[in-house]
Design brief:
The chain has about 220 residues and is α/β, with parallel strands linked by helices. It contains eight helices and eight strands, in the order E-H-E-H-H-E-E-H-E-H-E-H-E-H-E-H. About 35% of the residues lie in helices and about 20% in strands. Strand 6, helix 6 and strand 7 form a beta-alpha-beta unit. Helix 5 packs parallel to helix 6. The N and C termini lie close together (about 5 Å).
Amino acid sequence: MRHDTHTHTLYSDGIGSVLENIQEAERKGLSLVAITDHSHYVLNGNFESYVREIGRWKGEAETVVLAGLEGNAVDGGVDVPEWAAKKLDFVIASVHEWVERPERYLELVREALMDEKVDVIGHFGASFPYAGFPSMEELEEILELAEENGKAFEISSAYRVPELEFIRECVKRGIKLTFASDAHRPSRVGDISWSEKVFRKAGGRKEDLLFEEFL
Ligand SMILES: [Zn+2]
Ligand SMILES: [Zn+2]
């Protein structure tokens, strides 16, 4: 079940190439690796060659390779346009805005959950603007929206979020999960042991993973 759905390359703020990330994934025996560079770099730069280069390794690599983008959760949803989303395997939406109020953070996530282009919510709870993770009661609406709209959450080993209780709740409700290193250098690709550990603790099984069919 080892896989990594969140890695960066030179196409945004990572320091390795697409191929280096894939090679590291192969070396670590991952069954799937995704390239998910930041939307604002790739969309303002070389989107076509990004998709082409990732696509080129799809047939050749020993591991399943997916082309994604890590979009920003902004007012109205994710900052990845429809035409771009169509050329990708999936889209992550992450809150990167520095917010002072927890309500604002949750509002951005709510909008992302209602955006058809979004598949996965990235590092949910990282930089949450108060001490501690919200309670399950406070998150009830978030969980319901994810369930209704068929959205997944990544379990981020880089930020160690979401909390175990939240992941347990996802498993209970059939909300899909993924393992994510958020690697910005090739050597960190596949560093998903925290994700694996809490997924197991939460009672997760293969069918609870978003890309189950490739694992
Ligand atoms: Zn991020
Ligand atoms: Zn990232």
